[in-house]
């Protein structure tokens, strides 16, 4: 980062004075929160590596040098090893990722999607989910290992598992085939997603 300099005039030759800017790094409110560890979850810390094992599965994460893990009787804390802007940014992020790992292997996560449109439907065939989304042929997607996918009433899809990131990625890949359009709302949307509708040409006529 280039340090700004201020020119001092009034001399035969201009002199430059370096102006230093002090950056204040505030602690992350999320990063300071304690992570509660259930009795059925086992944590293994090896340097910057963490392994979390529970009844639903096992996850691992490697932390950058700016982040430290501290285990005590009350739970797990994510702390900063140095005071920099980068460390402050990572503090809250890695606390959230760590908490997601603990919750995932103990309780699990799920993401729900809704198919909106005439003839839109979904079915499970073996290890694949088959989507009818108005194309000339059905869309077949292989369900990744570690995820469970259920279909209710042919139009509601539930993606579950212990890895929140993998759940979100697979749900997004399903939605990507037919994102909801803004006029009639047809497509694949998240169950809690609100589609901002647009007024069609017919509605603008007076």
UniProtKB/TrEMBL annotation:
Establish whether keyword Ribonucleoprotein is in the entry. yes
Keywords from the named record:
Ribonucleoprotein, Ribosomal protein
Q: Which PROSITE patterns match?
A: RIBOSOMAL_L6_1 (PS00525)
Q: State the source organism's domain of life.
A: Eukaryota
Domain named Large ribosomal subunit protein uL6 alpha-beta: which ranges? Answer: 37-108, 116-190
Pfam families per record: Ribosomal_L6
Keyword Protein biosynthesis set for record: no
Which family is this protein grouped under? Belongs to the universal ribosomal protein uL6 family.
Protein name listed in UniProt: Large ribosomal subunit protein uL6c isoform X2
What is the organism of origin for this protein? Coffea arabica
């Amino acid at each position: 980062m280039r340090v700004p300099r201020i020119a001092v005039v009034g001399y035969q030759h201009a002199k430059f004075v370096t102006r230093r800017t002090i950056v204040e790094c505030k602690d992350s409110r999320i990063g300071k929160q304690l992570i509660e560890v259930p009795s059925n979850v086992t944590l293994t810390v090896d340097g910057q590596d963490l392994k979390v094992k529970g009844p639903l599965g096992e996850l691992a994460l490697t932390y950058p040098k700016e982040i430290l893990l501290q285990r005590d009787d009350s739970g797990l804390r994510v702390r900063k090893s140095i005071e920099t802007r980068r460390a402050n940014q990572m503090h809250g992020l890695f606390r959230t990722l760590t908490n997601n790992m603990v919750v995932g292997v103990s309780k699990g996560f799920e993401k729900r999607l809704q198919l909106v449109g005439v003839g839109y439907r979904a079915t499970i065939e073996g290890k694949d989910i088959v989507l009818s989304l108005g194309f000339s042929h059905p869309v077949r997607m292989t369900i990744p290992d570690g995820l469970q996918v259920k279909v209710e009433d042919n139009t509601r899809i539930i993606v579950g598992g212990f890895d929140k990131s993998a759940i979100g990625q697979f749900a997004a890949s399903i939605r990507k085939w037919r994102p909801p359009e803004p006029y009639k709302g047809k497509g694949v949307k998240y169950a809690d997603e609100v589609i901002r509708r647009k007024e069609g040409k017919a509605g603008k006529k007076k």
